[in-house]
Amino acid sequence: MSTARSNTCQCDCVRTSVGSARGSGHAVDDTGPNGWGVDKARPVDEIDPTSEGRRRNMRAIRRTDTRPERALRSALHRAGYRFRKDLLIRTGSGVKARPDIVFTKQRVAVFVDGCFWHGCPEHGGSPRKNVNYWGPKLQRNVERDRAQDASLRADGWTVVRVWEHELESEAITKVRGAGRIRTD
Q: Name one GO biological process term (predicted).
C-alpha cells in the first residue's frame, strides 16, 4: 500500500506519530513533500542517522519530563520534598550539568537515567541495528555522565543516579540516603 498520506508502509507496519514504523524491522522513508511521500520500506540498519525522518524521530524523544522522571518528582512532592527541576549547573571546572531534580540548598543533584541511553548494566544492552552510529553515541553518554558526576562532586554536590526501571520507593530511599535532605 503506497498511497500519499497512508498510515502504513508496504509491509503494513503501523506508522507512529514521528514517521517511523513499528513492527517488521522496517522504517518509513518520508522524503516527499511535507514528509508524506511514497512509503519505501527498507531495513532499519540502513537508516542514515542524519536523514530527515531520523531527525524527526530523535526530536520526538524527550530530554526532560519523561514518565519515570515525572513519577519520581510526583512521589517526592507527595512526601513533602521541595526541589527544582532541570536546573543548569555550571561547575568550577567548566562542565555543565542539568540534573532532573535539584535540591539547591542541600546541593544534591538527582539524575533519572534511561536504561538504553545511559547503559544500564541490567537492561542497557548494546544496540543491534546501526551499531556504528549508536555504539559511540551511547558510550559518549556514559562518559559525559561520569564527567558530570566527578565535576559536581568536586564542587561539593552529592550526585544521585536513579535508573528508570527502579521502583519509586527505591528511588526515594536513594534520594533520602543522599543525606541533608528534609521536607519543608
A: mismatch repair
